[in-house]
Design brief:
The chain is mainly beta. The protein is 0% helix and 29% strand. Pfam families: YjdM, Zn_Ribbon_YjdM.
Length: 112
């Protein structure tokens, strides 16, 4: 075994030096020894203004949103409490008073 660190991408132990970089022969990832390893693989969710969102936050809708399959609309300024973030196309799972359970995109809300 080598004294080189494992690959941060695929965790392979077969890494080697190539000039000033470390290289993983299994996935092809190249990195510098001085480069900090990132262990946080969790996606980051941001609202329309770029503020980070977390589970349990309260957000406000910034655009009228038509509800698919219904004639109802989620109006601008509707407050949504206690959101839950999910890794999907619509990344906010919530309940809206008067409408019910629904999924929203983070680009159409702002953090309160």
């Amino acid at each position: 075994m080598s004294d080189f660190p494992a690959c941060p991408e695929c965790k392979s132990s077969f890494t080697y030096h190539d000039g000033t970089l470390l290289v993983c022969p299994e996935c092809g990832h190249e990195w510098s020894e001085n480069e900090p390893e990132t262990t946080d693989d969790a996606p980051t969710f941001r609202d329309a203004n770029g503020a980070p969102l977390e589970d349990g936050d309260t957000v406000t809708v910034i655009k009228d949103l038509k509800i698919k399959g219904s004639s109802s609309v989620v109006k601008v300024g509707t407050k949504v409490k206690n959101i839950r973030l999910i890794d999907d196309d619509h990344d906010i799972d919530c309940k809206i008073d008067g409408i019910g359970a629904m999924k929203l995109k983070s680009e159409f809300v702002k953090k309160v």
